[in-house]
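Students often ask why we bother predicting the structure of a whole assembly rather than each chain alone. The short answer is interfaces. A chain on its own may look different once its partners are present, and contacts between molecules only exist in the joint model. In this exercise we take two input lines together and write out one structure for the complete complex. Read the inputs first and try to guess which parts will touch.
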Amino acid sequence: MKLNRRGFIGAGAAVAASLSAPMVMGAGKPRVVVIGGGAGGATAARYIANGSKGAIDVTLVEPSRTYYTCFFSNLYIGGFRDIQSLAHSYGGLATQGVNVVHDWAIGIDRDAKTVSLAGGATLPYDKLVLSPGIDFVDGAVSGWDVSAQNKMPHAYKAGSQTELLKAQIESMPEGGTFAMVAPPNPYRCPPGPYERVSMVAHLLKEKNPTAKIIVADPKPKFSKMALFQEGWATHYDGMIDWIGPEFGGGNVEVNADEMTVTIDGEVTKVDACNVIPAMKAGKICEMAGITEGNWAPVSGHTMESRIDPDIHVLGDATNQGDMPKSGFSANSQAKVAAMAIRGALTGSKVFPAKFSNTCWSLIDTNDGIKVGATYQATDEKIAKVDGFISQTGEGADLRKATYEESIGWYAGITSDMFG
Amino acid sequence: MSKPNSLVMPLVGAVGLVLGVTYGWTARDYRDGEFEALTAKVAQLQENSDLAEAQVDEIRTLGEEKTAEIAALQDKIAALEAELAAKPEVEVAAAAPETAPAPENAGGALIASNEAFGDAKKGAQVFKKCQACHQVGQGAEDRVGPHLNGIFGRRAGLHDGFRYSQDMAMMGNDGLTWTLETLNAYLENPKALVSRTRMNFAGLKDPQDRADILAYLRIFSDNPQNIPEAAPTATPEVVLSQAVLNIEGDPDYGEYLSSECTTCHQTDGGDDGIPSITSWPQEDFVIAMHAYKSKLRPHPVMQMMAGRLSDEEIAALAAYFEGLE
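Now the answer. The structure tokens for the assembled complex follow.
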């Protein structure tokens, strides 16, 4: 049997008539609205549209016309990618049958099952997918709020913030100081801050080798810690000062006007500062009333909200169990949600949920590392099954191959998201 | 005229004095420097001489050890020859053909003593299938394929000076090492272990042929006594039963499962950094996935992903990917 996805979309209209829609009463195709066009939302929209072969109306609501991937944005800071290589448009999704609406979702009426948009439109849905990513917890870093983000960028939503941070690092005076305020758990992309430290060090080593890096961290341990610390000692000896909580790394105050960072009472004048505050689910989850604490709890079997079964939540915004908050995880969860939604709306086959995640990080040129795991759904949570991590002391060939693998993955996941 | 002269002379004298003194100091400094350099050189030579003496001692000791080793080996050979003489039905292995002489003197004896492992003499015959590309034995060199001396324990794809396929190099980086088990799997179906290997060989389907050829190659290993004398696992896990190969995959299930693959493997066939898996013959796909599942193939992500797939799930994936265009 020869399968050809695009061919199926063409044939979709004819097939649709013969498919049953058990959950949806009345006339018309079932409607799915997806809010957020990142690794979770774009993937879900594409898989529902492609998989249902036109039997489901899919609308994606995403304010940005150009999406900059957060993953690999550290490589832009290090000089390994240009910003355009991180940019993706939604044209591919539109041609695959997704109705792409560039607008802000500003309200969800769960009883009426509608989404209202800043532009004034109201979108009805049978199933709603929320994949809004993260927002920052107010007052998480003393002295910092979003009004300070131009002086002390977070660069934790990729795009102009990332460009700003890189420009500030590049204009540091000779021998100047770069500071990072690292976030507490849980947060988007566990190895992200430390890959960023590596990339900043790489950039400074080339342009400003006497510059210093200070990292104030509230966590005693972080993702791939041994691998990063080995890499920092090998490539950037003496440049990076990581201050954990036992040395006051959790007791931090910043002053964006004075450009100072105060760690455990000691004031340091800095030349560039990256503040990554504590995180929470994207605001729309809170507005929909589906959060408990900072995150939206979901069932691992379907990614359904535990508060509203007609809303599926994906990616960083969720509280699901053992999976890290990553683009890979969001993409993996989107496929489970897409299958569950298609099953509920059109009666297509539903298989047991499987999840996986791998995070690659770059320490220096051709020195790539990775960590990954597989997961399954239990009634309680998404539970880890098996995992692996790169080893310290690995050979240069393997590290180079790991980096090259990450480039392949980037091509793979972005075409999986955007078509 | 005399007045200026009376002034000039003391001036010349003074300048001369200054110059003289300066020269004296400089010369003294120079000679001191030279003396220090010479002292250092003498110390260095002394050190070199000590080192050389130590080396001579070391070599002498080594020589004595080697002589003892040679004597021990000769005794062993004599004992084995006596043993062989007592069994006239076992032909003393002149097994290795002229094209690939056994290394040193112990080869024949080793072959004969290791029949449990496979028959090296028969292996030498089977190896003729390989000789167009591979050399083994004294003076063996890389040809179309790499030479096979010391193949056991060698890291795949990393033998210096040979240009391997991208896939073989990748397997080596991932940690594939040639052992009885991996060589057996590779000989059985090269592409099942290393998908796009340059070794254009269908494989030895007869397990006895593989056992024999491995016994033969073992002779040319650096430490044959370290290689277990058991026959290669009778049914290595990568050799799948016909029942497993015959499982009819459900392409719908395969399509869902494939969504885990397409996060990394590009469906358009692109293969930068991560190989393409579209349009892969079903059976090759199934065998390769089982090779990861049984950890014969080394990549940690793939071992993990394949590790939790059932036989039916692997079949479903294969059915789906073969159908993709």
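Check your guess against this: Chain A touches chain B through 40 residues (CB under 8 Å).
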